[in-house]
Structure formats: C-alpha cells, structure tokens
Design a protein that fits this description.
Number of helices: 15
Radius of gyration: 26 Å
Order of helices and strands: HHEHEHEHEHEHHHHHHHHH
Number of domains: 2
Structural class: alpha/beta
Helix content: 55-70%
Distance between the termini: 21 Å
Oligomer: single chain
Amino acid sequence: MLPRILALMIKEFLALLKDKRSRTVVFVPPILQLLVFGYAATFDLNRIPFAVYNEDPGPASRDLVARFAGSPNFREVAVLAHQKQISPLVDTKRVLLVLHIGPTFSRDLFGGRSAPVQVILDGRNSNTAAVLLSYVNTIMTGFNLGWQERAGGATAQARLETRAWFNPNLVSRWFIVPGIVGLLTLVVTTLVTALSVAREREQGTFDQLLVTPFRPGEILLGKALPGFIIGLFEATLIILLAVLWFQIPLRGSLLTLYAGLLCFLLSTVGMGLMISSLAVTQQQGLLGAFLFLVPCIILSGFATPIANMPDWVQQITYLDPLRYFLIILRGVFLQGTPFHLLADQFWPMALIGVVNLLLAGYLFRHRLY
C-alpha cells in the first residue's frame, strides 16, 4: 500500500511542478501577497470594552470615569478591586483597555499638581490600540478643559500615561503578518487540493487511475499528502519571512505553532478534497474553492473583529478553521502562549479536518463508481 501511495504522490508532484501555471500559483502569489499585506493592510475598531480600576474615591476621578462610561465609543464591562484582576481581563480579550486612576488623583488636582492616569491597552492589534488611544486623548482633553473651567483657570491637569501589552511600540505589522501565515496557507492548500482530482478528470487521466490496483482510499490519500506537504512548506517559508524579514517576535514554542499548523492543514486539505471530489472540471474546482475561501477569510477575524459581528454570525464562525488558527498564530507570536492554554483551539480544527476527510472519502467513492 505504501509504495503505491508514494508513487501516486510523486506523480501528483510532477504534474504540479511541470505545469508552469501551477508553479506560479503555488510560489509567486503568496510572497507577493505577504509583501502587500505586510506593508499596506490596516484595521479599525467599532466597539471598545474597557475596565476601570479606580483607587481614588474623590469627585475628580468619578467625573473622569463618567466621561469614559458615557462616551459612545466605550463600553464599561468591569470594575476592578485590585491590580491582579487586570492581567486576566487583557489576556483573554474581555477588555481592550483598562483605566487605572491612582489613590491621590483628586488630591493632586485640588492641590494644583499634575495627576497621572494610567491607560493599559491591548497592543496585539496595534491599529486598534492607536485608534483607542486617540479616543482616550479626546476624552482626557475634554476632562482637562472642564477641570480648568471649574477651578478658575488652574493649570493642574490629568496627565496620561500609556502602556501597551504584547506590542509595546504598537507596530501594526506585528498583528497583521502572523495572520497572513494562516491566510496564505489556507489559500494555497485549498486551491492545490481542490484542483487535484478535477484536473485528472479534465485531462482524461482519471480513467487510467480506475484500472490501476489503487483503492479509492489510497487515491484520496495520495491526493491529500502533496497538498499537506506544500502547505507545510509554504507556512514555514512565510514564518521565516515574518521573523527574519519583518522582524516579528516569535515568543512562543515552535512545537505549539506547528501542532496548530498540522491541525489546520488537516482541515483545509479535507475541505479541498471534498470540493475536488464534487468538481468535474478545474473551473468548477476553482469556483468551489473560492466559494469556500471568501466566507472563511471574512468570518475568521482577520479583517473584522469577531466580537463586532452579530451573534448569529459569531455562531457560524465556529465552523471556520482559520478562526482557531489565527488565535494560535497571534498567541504564539505575540504572547508566547503555552500549548495547554491553546488546547481548546486545537481540537475543533482536528474535528473539522476529520469530518471533511470522511465526507471527501464518501463523495470520492460515490462518484468513483
């Protein structure tokens, strides 16, 4: 069995690499898209959940908190009692901002002294953090103007101190490029596998496979492994470019990253084979691949935060393997998240992959006979 599958894999690689157009699709677009997205893509934010850690019982701090809570750009979701509560909220993305007011804030303002206010931002999405900071500055400016009017033109005012977690310099590339690893891996593996069986049918070589000793499962496996290997190679190449060219920090474990990559490839290859089993021509396979890719990318959280989507759309995103892989990518790259904290992202991709492969096998056998 193994020699037959290996022979079929070699045939698949040769058919892919000898075709100039196939070579171009596999190698050129991912590099070009990486460079374009890496330098040009930006994102915005619509809703901003924040928490308040107010150590000052005075009227000035209450006024400042009320300005944030009353702003249409912010939504207060938690009031903290001690500093240890900050980290879990930011780590789990329950809040994007924590407003920390020290115990002497009101006393400093009434005493004519500058009063610091700390704003802790989630820096994983640097563009979001930058937009967030502009909203904060607007509120702080309004607060200071109002305070000066009430204090008869006093020069004392609140002073903003900003701290960004996970991306201290708020470099947008740190957020975008890790996501491109998943995006381009999805596109390449889906297209390669979606066209594999359809290409055999269109070129008239599929009938030749039927008279060989190959079983349907062996043919399916021989078609799946080349796409799996190409996806692994593409992802490794893009990861190397991200780290060495774009200088994106890789803070987590490569073992965790590649475990997630293998689960992700399992799901994308399964989907590609299912599309290929249904397609009669390469054009149908290409159309089916794009019908899958477009919603998969949109619902992944790559371009639009999932939390901003309607509730019913958020439920659909759980069927999207890219959603889980993006969490793993950004967690490993920016946060150094260990394997056990990402366990709930691995098994959904593996389950999606197994279901896709089983459906692909059923469709392949059904259409084979």
